[in-house]
Every structure is written in structure tokens, then in C-alpha cells.
Amino acid sequence: MGHVSAIFIKKDRESPRQEITEGEFKENYGLVGDVNSAEGPRQVCLLRKEDRDLVTLDSRNGLCFGRFLETVQIEGIPLETLTKDSWFRIGDAILKVTVIGKKCWPDCEIIHSKSTCALPKAARFMGVLESGIIRVGDEVTAI
Fold this sequence. Notes:
Layout: E1 2-9, E2 18-20, E3 22-26, E4 30-31, E5 44-48, H1 49-57, H2 64-67, E6 72-75, E7 87-90, E8 93-100, H3 109-112, H4 119-122, E9 124-130, E10 132-135, E11 139-142
Parallel strand pairs: 5-6
Antiparallel strand pairs: 1-2, 1-6, 1-11, 3-4, 3-10, 5-9, 7-8, 7-11, 8-9
């Protein structure tokens, strides 16, 4: 199916995020050591590489382009398979899509221009149903 192309961690609010080769994902929490991990529906932020590439190539100054930071980046999975409540085995962990999309910032240049960007539809938030290690290169399989 698809695979993990990158994993990112942000250890505290002041530091930039770091790309890592593997991470421990804890049930009902998220990535261990990540400042954004917590209980609730948004434990892990997932984005397809294809959608991150669209955002990166976009010349407009969208507020989310720098603010929205995925925890796990995948590629080779069609967006339509990442439906709400769908389960995926990623590495040793099992995750469930809990939230589709993200809200736009009202002061975003793109919103004011009445156009769209990829993030509101492409972003996925997931909950960790079963703890495990996820590594770059691991398969992503719908279960």
C-alpha cells in the first residue's frame, strides 16, 4: 500500500521540529516526547507527502503553511482511503483517523483571496489505538 516518508517531533514550544527516523507512539497519547501529544482526538497529525509538496510549492502566503506541522508523513495512500474512523497499521502501531481536515485561520491571505489550499481537506488527525514503534519506510496498511 503506502509507506512512512518522514516522522517529525517538536520537543518544546520554542524549538523547531526535528525530523527523526523512528518514534514510539503510545496508546491514547501520541508520539512520546512530542509537545503536541496528549489524550483526545488529535494525538497524531498525519499528512500525505503529496499534499505537503503542494503546500511547499504554493507561492501564496498561507498562515498554516508554516504552522501546521505533521507528526507522520506518508506517501502512496489515496486521500479518499483516509476516511473518518478508518484504522491503519503503521509500523508496529495501530492508529485511527479521528478528525478530517483543519480549520483555516480567519486572517489567512488565502481565505481573503477566496481561494483554497490543500490543508483544510488533506490534514488528518489520528488516535493511537495500539502502542508501537513507527519507522521511516514502514508500510501503511488499512485494516
